[in-house]
# Entry
Amino acid sequence: MPVLSGAAVVFLRESDLTQSDIHLVIILLLVIAAALALQALGVVIASAIAARTLVRAKTLVGMVEAKASPVLDQTKTILDQTQAILKDLAPRLRRLSESAEQVSSTVRTRVEDLSVTVNELNDTMLEINDRTRKQVRRADGIVQDALDATEEISQAVQQGIKGPVKQIAAIIAGVQAAIKVLVERSPFRPKG
# Structure
């Protein structure tokens, strides 16, 4: 009789099993043992496949590292160069910004001075004579254009446009020309 476990022996003694029942149990145990052996074989095969896949993965990782390493090195070099350029440009940009602020402040002050001067000139021209009111209105239009132009200049300077000094000189020349025309047409001007 085949060797059975202790629980099976106890069970078999107390029951009325026949010899054929015992053979059937043994056959079932052999089927279970075969299934477990197949399962173990499957685990071994799966382990071998996993080991081969792991080797391939390591090879692929090595290839990727070999190909990506120069790209990463170049990227790091480019980043370092970019940082160096930005570090080098920062003080220059700061100085440029400070200079722009100074120019803007100076131009704003000059524009305000010009605006006060033009307004005083306008008041003076209105007081000269009723006969020159038509000319004064024309000069006021010129002065208003000059004020509009100086406001545009102030905005242009704040936006970083070059050449605000030339525009201010042109405005002053226009105002001087207007004053000259008004003085030439004034009835109080000595004739000679």
About this structure: The chain has a mean pLDDT of 80.
